[in-house]
# Entry
Amino acid sequence: MNHTNESFSEYFILMDLTKYPWLDLPHFFVFLTSYLFTLSGNTAIILVSQLDSQLQSPMYFFLTNLSFLDLCFTTTTVPQMLFNLAGDNKSITYTGCMVQAYVFHWLGCSECILLGIMALDRYVALCQPLRYSVIMDRKLCLQLSGSAWLLGLANSLLQSTLTFQMPLCGNQALDHFFCELPGLIRMACGDTTVNEIILGVVATFLILGPLSMILVSYGYIARAVFRIPSAARRLKAVNTCSSHLLVVSLFYGPGIYIYMQPSGDDPQDLTKVLTLFYCVITPMANPFIYTLRNKEVTRALRRLLRKATASKRI
# Structure
C-alpha cells in the first residue's frame, strides 16, 4: 500500500456512539462491565462443557464453539472501543482497521452458520432421538463446525478484500465505532454498486440460508415436542429450544436490518445501536440465556464449583 496516494489514509477517525462527548465515560464503564461479563460467562461455559463428563453431547460441543466464537467476536471490537471512549484519541490505524474488519466478518459469518447447525442438532435430538448419537457422531460434529469456520473465513476474505480495494480519496472519518464493511463502503468516493450487490447477495445467502434451516428445523421440532407424552420432558425440550431461538433473534434481527438493505438507506445512529446487539449484547447474554434455562448446565456449574472449593481446602 502506498500511503502517499491520497486514495488511502494512514489512519481512520472513529465516531462516537452518540453526539454527546459527556456520555463517553458512562459508556466506557457500561461496556467494560459487559465485556468482563462476556469473558467470564463464556469462559465458564467452555470450562464446564469440557470438564464435566455429563456434558459431552453434540449440543454442548456446538455450545462450546459458540462461546469461543463469542469470546473472539467481542474481543475484536470492544477493547478498541474502550480505548477510544477512555480518552481523546478516536483513531485506528489503517492496518488495525483491516485486521478488525477481516476478523469481525469472519467470526460474524461463522456464527450465522453455527446457529443454523445448532438448530439442525436440536432437530436430530428431538425428532430422531434413538439415532441421535449415531447421526451426530464426533466426526460429523467436527466437519460441521469446521465448515462454519471455513465458510466464514472465505466470505470475509472476499468481502473485506473487495472493500479495501475501493478508493477513499483521503476520507478519514468513519461514522461508526469500529471498522464494519457497510460503514467502510459509505466512505468510498468511487462507484460502490458492485460492492453493495456482492455484500447484499452473500449476506442474503449467509443469513437467510441458516435462518431458513432454523425455521424449518423448529417447525419439525414443534410438532415432535407436542407429541411427547411426559410434561417434564416436554418442558425440558421447550426450555432448550427457546434458549436457542432467543439467541437467534438477538443475533439475526439486527444483522438482517443492517446487511440486507441498500447502503445509505438506514439512519447511522440506529445502525450503531443495532450493531451493539450482535457485537456486545448477544455475546454477553448467551451464557446467561443457556445456563439460566438449562438445568444440566446449572448442575454442572455447581459440581465444578464444589470440586474447586474442595481442592482448595485440601
DSSP finds ten helices and three strands in the chain. The CA atoms of residues 101 and 179 lie 5 Å apart. Residues 94-127 form the longest helix (34 residues).
